[in-house]
Design brief:
It is built from 15 helices and 13 strands. It is an alpha/beta fold and about 400 residues long. It has an eight-stranded mixed beta sheet with strand order 5-4-3-2-1-6-8-7, with helices on both faces. A five-stranded mixed beta sheet has the order 11-10-9-12-13, sandwiched between helices. It is globular. The two termini are about 30 Å apart. Bound molecules: adenosine-5'-diphosphate.
Length: about 400
């Protein structure tokens, strides 16, 4: 049976999923796994379609020193033990820069263009590209497709896309891109099924995970996002600060003598919920902590989601529905309840029972704005894109041969 391998590579982990392609072109998830602790305590874990563990094994550090090595180990496991040889590999790549507004098939030229955007996503892009380069070198005939977190936002109106800086910088690519696009695209595709009455309307989606952002959808398309040039803007995240006066960065460098590399590390790794609380970057730990700084970090997060909901409602000139998704949005009833409280003025009224049972629709019948919890599935989106790029490529090749 044909299958598609989806790869999401980060700095210390490579997550993967395998989807079987059924005869009617439908995708069925078969395996989900990850190699984490790369370069420290490598460990491969995987589970089957029913969630049962099918692998859990540790490796010596020298066997998995980096992302390409992790990819090699995971591929060997899939090939030798699961007996799976994918028809194509789909990758998540954080930054498509100004060039890419849709997924594309990988070749050396695409990789070279994507490497140019590494400075815009320094902690993600090089790791996203590492397995692509390693597959290109070792299995050049295996089709690969790259799917971008920025692509879904590429049709923003200019007023949403531009910074108030001289235009030549915009031309160079210094613009507001927005991220988590694969998640928002999945939600936009799912809404006609779960909430047909609002799917074509003005919807604010809150993707609240370790990385967090919000997106304004009109007619299923993104028109505004809280993230911008890099994945640092907007909401506070696990370890990133969210919106910050650029003067703070100048202060860190000029008054505190921090180097650009130190500031970069600081902004990506030491701020957000972790920096605010001094306890953890993980919402679950903050919720069980009695440290007042942990409570404050949650209050700050909730307050900021409320502020940005107002901003996105202004961009949409109203709000017909609100959607929660990702780790915090899908699982934390208490954070959802507190955010919903702040959205009362916009017409939101949550039903406490529906909310605590994580129902699909958590608003009261009388709520002017319905509120939904829709689990996201970025990997399925990548698998769907990969299959569709592959099928288009094949039919183009057939047409060319016939002409
Ligand atoms: P990412 O994919 O960006 O790593 P996730 O979407 O998995 O992030 O979200 C991770 C966040 O979700 C963490 O802050 C985690 O604490 C939070 N989270 C997961 N489950 C719960 C829960 N039951 N209650 C509160 N927060 C949760």
């Amino acid at each position: 049976m044909d299958s598609i391998l989806v790869v999401n590579a980060g700095s210390s982990s490579v997550k993967f999923q395998v989807f079987a392609v059924d005869g009617d072109g439908r995708l069925r998830r078969q395996f989900k796994g990850q190699m984490d602790g790369i370069g420290s305590r490598p460990r491969l874990r995987a589970s089957g379609a029913n969630g049962d563990a099918v692998a859990d094994r540790a490796y010596p550090i020298e066997a998995v020193p980096d992302v390409p090595a992790a990819m090699t180990v995971a591929s060997a496991w899939l090939r030798d033990e699961v007996r799976m040889t994918p028809m194509a590999v789909g990758h998540r790549v954080v930054h498509g820069g100004p060039d890419y507004d849709r997924p594309v098939a990988v070749d050396h030229a695409v990789v070279a263009r994507l490497e140019r955007f590494a400075a815009l996503a320094p902690l993600h892009q090089p790791h996203n590209l590492a397995p692509i380069k390693s597959i290109l070198a070792n299995f050049p005939a295996l089709p690969q497709v790259v799917c971008f977190d920025t692509a879904f936002h590429r049709n923003h109106p200019d007023v949403a896309d531009v910074y108030a800086i001289p235009h030549r910088l915009h031309e160079e690519g210094v613009r507001r891109y927005g991220f988590h696009g694969l998640s928002y695209e999945y939600i936009a595709r799912k809404l006609p099924e779960v909430a047909p009455e609002v799917a074509q309307g003005r919807v604010v989606v809150a993707h609240l995970g370790s990385g967090a952002s919000m997106c304004a959808l009109r007619g299923g398309r993104s028109i505004e996002s809280t993230l911008g040039f890099t994945a640092l803007d907007g909401l506070p995240m696990g370890t990133r600060p969210g919106q910050l006066d650029p003067g703070v960065v100048l202060y860190l460098m000029l008054a505190k003598g921090m180097t650009p590399a130190e500031v970069q590390d600081f902004l990506y790794k030491d701020c957000g919920l972790k920096g605010l609380s001094g306890v953890s970057n993980d919402m679950r730990e903050l919720q069980t902590s009695s440290d007042p700084r942990a409570l404050f970090a949650i209050e700050y997060f909730v307050y900021r989601v409320g502020l940005y909901a107002g901003m996105l409602a202004a961009a949409l000139q109203g709000m017909d529905a609100f959607v929660f998704t990702a780790g915090i949005g899908e699982n934390s009833a208490s954070v959802r309840a507190r955010i919903a409280d702040r959205l009362g003025w916009l017409g939101v009224a949550v039903d406490p029972l529906a909310n605590s049972s994580h129902a699909l629709k958590i608003s009261q019948a009388a709520s002017r704005v319905p509120v939904y919890v829709v689990p996201t599935d970025e990997e399925r989106m990548i698998a769907e894109h990969t299959l569709s790029v592959l099928l288009t490529k094949r039919s183009n090749a057939r047409r060319e041969r016939a002409s």
